[in-house]
Design a protein that fits this description.
- Helices cover 29% and strands 26% of the residues.
- By secondary structure, the chain is α/β, with parallel strands linked by helices.
- It has helices at residues 28-36, 62-74, 85-89, 108-111, 154-160, 188-195, 210-218, 244-259, 262-271; strands at 38-42, 46-47, 51-53, 59-60, 77-81, 99-104, 114-130, 146-150, 181-185, 205-209, 223-240.
- The strands form two sheets. It has an eight-stranded mixed sheet, sandwiched between helices.
- It contains nine helices and eleven strands.
- It is globular, with a radius of gyration of 18 Å.
- Strand 2 (46-47) and strand 3 form a beta hairpin.
Length: 277
Amino acid sequence: MASLHRWLPILASGALAAIPVGQLAAGEVLDRVMTRGVMVMSTDAEYPPQSSLNSAGEFEGFDIDVGREIAERLDVAIEFVTPGWEVITSGRWNGRWDVSVGSMTPTVARREVLDFPAIYYYTPAALAVHADNQDIATPADVSGKAIGVGVATTYENYLKGDLVIDAEGAPPFDYLIADANIRTYDTDLLALDDLRLGDGVRLDAALTALPTIMEAVDKGYPIKVVGDPVFLEPLSVAIDKGDPELGAKLAEIVSAMRDDGTLSELSMKWYGADLTH
């Protein structure tokens, strides 16, 4: 992942998001986790290097390791569930899982149903094209073309022109792609799978996190990054709206993980770069 260092100068320090009070009884989820002795975390089985299943059928990745560390510091076990991303971001989880450590960007729309107690890293959103493509040199060059994205992601919002990131320290960005022919997929990796079939065969480009693109390149996908990242995503732990005790505890733990270097170590392990500041 050494190539990630090219984009590190654009990474900016952020702050913990505010913790609004919402629908749950105070402390309800935190009490359930501590009483049960298990934290249930939603994740994605096809989103390397953030989260995926290895050959032994075990979850691994940056988000997985961060979640495991949070559970360890809570002194509870951890279990993983894999609902669809659209289901996770819709909120109102009704106790089906307790927390999302899933590289989620706080947005105005998502904050209506979720709380974002702790930003734990930052990642550039980048455009990929097939390695054979010679016509697309900048993000603007894919205007009007078929672009693959994960459904209900910030990448889809960006292409629609309605992305509003709601996190302190998030740098401003411009919309560089107009009139995109948006093709949505259950996961970002599925978009890259279609892109690798050939230049323009199913897609002209895909928009996703830069680490996800570089992981695919490392695995032999015939794709390449075009231009500079189009925006920077602050990525946060997310919880169902309205449990300030749980939010405060998660914020405390993530802050300690940043201060003692754990987040930086995990970022270097999975990305080859420190994306946590």
